[in-house]
Amino acid sequence: MWGYLLRRLFESALILLGITFVTFVLLYLVPADPARQIAGRSATAETVANIRDQLGLNDPLVTQYWRYLTGLFQGDMGRSYLQRAEVSSLIASRLPASLLLMVSAIVTELIIGLTIGVVAALRRNRPVDHTLMILSFVAISAPQFVIGILLLYVFAVQLGWFPIGGYGTFAHLVLPSVTLGLLGAGWYSRMMRSSMIEVLNQDLVRTARAKGLSKLRIVTRHVMPNAILPIIAMIGIDIGLFMSGIVVVESVFGWPGIGQLAWQAIQRVDIPVIMGVTMVSATAIVLGNLLADFVAPLIDPRIKTK
Amino acid sequence: MSAPEDTGPGEPRPVLTVRDLSVQVATEAGAKTVLDGLSFDLRAGETLALAGESGSGKSMTALAIMGLLPKPMARISGGAIRLGDTELTSLGERVYRKIRSARVAMIFQEPMTSLNPLMTVERQICEVLLEHGAVSRSQAPKRALELLRDVRLTEPERRLSQYPHELSGGMRQRVMIAMALACDPEVLIADEPTTALDVTVQAEILDLIRTLQAEHGTAVLMITHDMGVVAEMADRVIVLRQGRQEETAPVRDLFAAPRTEYARMLLAAVPRLGAAPDRPEPADSRKIVEVDDLSVRFDIAGGVLNRTVARVHAVEGVSFHIRAGETLALVGESGCGKSTIGKALLGLVPWQGSIRIDGQQTRGRSRAAMRPVLRDIQMVFQDPGASLDARMTVGDQVVEPMVVHGLARGSELADRAEWLFQRVGLSPDMLRRYPHEFSGGQRQRICIARALSLSPKVIVADESVSALDVSVQAQVLDLMQELQAQDGLSYLFISHDMAVIEQVADRVVVMRLGQIMEEGARDAVLRDPRHPYTRRLLSAVPVPDPTRRRPDLPETSGVEEISPIFPVGQGPARVELTELSRRHRVARDAMAKT
């Protein structure tokens, strides 16, 4: 068990190292010049060149990457080009808001998605099933900014149930979480439906029925635990989906998280901040997968961690 | 058919009465009657066998009685099922639920998939006890333990906290039986309860069902395709064929003098151990397959660095040969390595040692270099449905090996396909059809045709007739022997079925835990077995003759507990074979004991 954990952590560190390299190279190749952004429009070519020199942007790629990496190992993610702050403190101040949004979105999408999946499977090929599956398809297909603006218009502007944007109370949390969670809910409802149908056709359900168990008990104790197994691995992968969603949703709702930070940094080629946010989200994805792999054996005794 | 059976004044009232029961299944072509007017009585302590081939409606009968017909596809279209005074066909789900397991219980064919993999044995047994209020919540675990003792499960305390995947097939079926008998039902329906089990385990489970039946006075409805099991278990038999009750008779009468043509045919098709015709002694011809010191090991990885920590020794130091025109049978129970040997011969698993196919050494050959060898050796698998491509016409599949090997093209292929189809007894007009349009037996003929397309010298037949009904099985075996007589084909015939092996084999190799226990000419091994393991295998085979009791199973010496998994660098003790005669060799450990 501990050996397995150690090995997995080591693998994760390697993956993250690979990600730093790929991101760094990609940003290096971006045709925009950060020095020009910092200097402003009216700056002379000389000023720009000075800034480039100061930031070490004229050094070869390998030197720059090495500098970044050694800093990273000492816990230094660099300084923002445009805001007078360390990248790490920028991220630290915004991470809690994003984590809160993410966790509540995961809870939302699991509750909505799994419920719809179970109901659709138990009523399969009936009108209820067809309706739910059409809805889930809509949730998957609609762009998140459209859903976000729509929810905002109906529930905040027209009905006035929730605040239009911002951060602070539970009411602020609802619309962004639902917007972010709907996409996942669409996916999970489809996966849960097909997984449930598969288990419903297995011999173990016939045995449960032959035992004279109630339908409720068969569904909750026998079918659902077996059906949810393949979903667990998906939740880990899902965190990656969230990261792209968070940038959009935080902008729409004015949510002060790292999504907003990333959006600003991308617009202004603030490379250290982009690198920092990428590293944080990559770490989240890697940890999410790791967590999923450690949760699975708790539910399924057939999986052994070796 | 619908007339009630005679109930003599002295006989107890039947527990279960079925009258004129019909079941219909909805198909695209409209309702199809899969069970037509079945009637029988079942009395306490009695065993009634429902025997028949696939599609006879025997499982439908069981599900109809349990009220578990798959809705909405299947429904009871007529007749009555009475359990004591309760009419079951008109019962609502709510009431029916209270009857299942409490009064009628059922065990199934696949103990592997019939238990919930995520629940401990204890929880699965307690669940049924508590559902029917058989015991209080605090008493349930105690009762569960008693039940495991009743079904003679070893180490019952430990089993309670185990999950199904930690148990062997036989143990799982014992757990299923414990669950079925938890509420002391009046009727136990056993649907092919031993079909998925090894023959020695089958014997133990059948013994157990008989013992428990005697203790509890349960009425047993035994559903099986195996006439050996029928002869061993049943008091009375109903022979079903395509949903119709062909014949109903006391078991001795049926076997002694079947009244209907179908029952006669069915009984005649059953392979009987010890009744196989003599085979001409094969000439000492050329050795087509020479296997020397073959080992197959699978690595198990683990630890921090994910290095190999242990190995499964699937096959360990096995040597044998097959001559031209000869059939060598590999027998043994599941996990003994017999299928692995077949795969090694075709280079489908990594192996060590030496394998020569018609003189060509195959060790260390790349995939491409293996190709010419594969022209000489082909394989036919157990499940003909799964080994054909559903989206390709059978004609294309039969000649695909020739295309792959670049041996023919165009009209030549079409001619060859026709010729192959004729050889395996199929009509060439069927070449354009797809696999789902054929029956199981026809599909296996197609697989044989495909194996023949390269004119191989050897065919590895891995449980090739095990999934087929007995009458079809007999026909496919005949076909295989015909082909052998015509072409001088050699077969490596891998099977768990001793009676089938006796029919086809010239020589027999008995395997256990990856090693050879006994080998020799068919009559030497099967009629004068020297190794205790061979004897045990043979004595476990149900005898399709109700007047002859199967001898009691020799006690095991805990051999089942031995695992083929060893740490790196270690391995099983090599078994040495001693020559008893020119045509009979046996493991030396057996000689020490006898």
TrEMBL record, chain A:
Protein's UniProt keywords contain Transmembrane helix: yes
GO biological process: transmembrane transport
Subcellular location field: Cell membrane
Domain of life, source organism: Bacteria
UniProt domain ABC transmembrane type-1: residue ranges: 95-296
GO terms for cellular component: plasma membrane
Membrane topology, as annotated: Multi-pass membrane protein
Keywords: Cell membrane, Membrane, Transmembrane, Transmembrane helix, Transport
Pfam entry (one): BPD_transp_1_N
Residue intervals passing through the bilayer: 12-30, 99-122, 134-155, 167-188, 227-253, 273-296
The family this protein is said to belong to: Belongs to the binding-protein-dependent transport system permease family.
UniProt protein name: Peptide/nickel transport system permease protein
From TrEMBL, chain B:
Protein name per its UniProtKB record: Peptide/nickel transport system ATP-binding protein
GO molecular function, one term: ATP hydrolysis activity
InterPro entries, per the entry: AAA+_ATPase, ABC_transp_ATP-bind, ABC_transporter-like_ATP-bd, ABC_transporter-like_CS, Oligopep_ABC_C, P-loop_NTPase
Natural source organism: Palleronia salina
Start and end residues of each stretch annotated as Disordered: 542-567
GO BP annotations listed: peptide transport; transmembrane transport
CDD domains, per the entry: ABC_NikE_OppD_transporters (cd03257)
Keyword terms: ATP-binding, Nucleotide-binding, Transport
Protein topology in the membrane: Peripheral membrane protein
Family recorded in the similarity comment: Belongs to the ABC transporter superfamily.
Keyword set includes Transport: yes
Subcellular localization(s) per the UniProt record: Cell inner membrane
High-level lineage: Bacteria, Pseudomonadati, Pseudomonadota, Alphaproteobacteria, Rhodobacterales
Pfam families, alphabetized: ABC_tran, oligo_HPY
Domain of life: Bacteria
Record carries keyword Nucleotide-binding: yes
PROSITE patterns: ABC_TRANSPORTER_1, ABC_TRANSPORTER_2
Domain ABC transporter: 18-267, 289-538
Cellular component terms per the entry's GO annotation: plasma membrane
